[in-house]
Amino acid sequence: KAGVTQTPRYLIKTRGQQVTLSCSPISGHRSVSWYQQTPGQGLQFLFEYFSETQRNKGNFPGRFSGRQFSNSRSEMNVSTLELGDSALYLCASSPNEPSQETQYFGPGTRLLVL
Amino acid sequence: GDSVTQMEGPVTLSEEAFLTINCTYTATGYPSLFWYVQYPGEGLQLLLKATKADDKGSNKGFEATYRKETTSFHLEKGSVQVSDSAVYFCARENSGNTPLVFGKGTRLSVIA
To answer: What is the pLDDT of residues A56-97, one digit of tens each?
Structure first.
């Protein structure tokens, strides 16, 4: 079974631009979670989607948004990029409710904002 | 609030040395506990987990025991290899609004 895939793997943007990242979960998994990883803050939870509905949300500004499609693929969008948004963005999938099950992570998208 | 605290790195060991990475958690109840590993340039991979008190998770020579008395889940390996060089994250299940709560990670470097 293929693992979680994320595209693109690397991205360079400038301040003020917007970006869309994509995540394809493991086949059959219905839950997708997004995390931001930075050297200073570690792993921080962004949001989680299940069956096209956002179920949980972390403490990030409204510039960060996401959605999930009927095939469980998910996208996250960051608008009006700031330098501090430079990070590794990780997507994780699980069959059902992630708090009760193992999450499987993708390789991440590394975003650099200049 | 509920949290996970793990020892700060970096940890540098010689090959075949004994490894311990401490992890403690705060929680109400008995959440599932996890260790994830992140190799350079990659995402996180589940290393091992324990779902109830006194359970021992093990994989690839790594072990961790769920200790409810000390609210700890320390990671150990008897003989590390250069290929074990990575960042290790302790995590706990969360009954609140996030799927997992992670520690800040501990970077391990093993030198030959």
So the answer is: 888 899 999 999 999 999 999 999 999 999 999 999 998 876
Percentage, residues of chain B above pLDDT 90: 72
pLDDT in tens, B56-99: 999 999 999 999 999 999 999 999 999 999 999 999 987 665 67
Instruction: Write out chain B residues lying below 8 Å of A58, CB-based.
Output: 97-98
Residue of chain A nearest B87, judged by CA positions: A42
Q: Which amino acid is at B105?
A: G
Residues of B in contact with A92 (CB under 8 A): 44, 99
SS (H, E, C) chain A: CCCCEEECCEEEECCCCCEEEEEECCCCCCEEEEEEEECCCEEEEEEEEECCEEEEECCCCCCEEEEECCCCCEEEEECCCCHHHCEEEEEEEECCCHHHCCCEECCCEEEEEC
Nearest Cα to Cα of residue B81 among B23, B22, B37, B33: B37
Rounded to a whole number of angstroms, the distance between the first and last alpha carbons of chain A is: 37
Strand-by-strand arrangement of the A5-7 sheet: A5-7, A19-24, A74-78, A64-68
Q: Which amino acid is at A99?
A: S
Answer yes or no: are the C-beta atoms of A11 and A18 closer than 8 Å: no
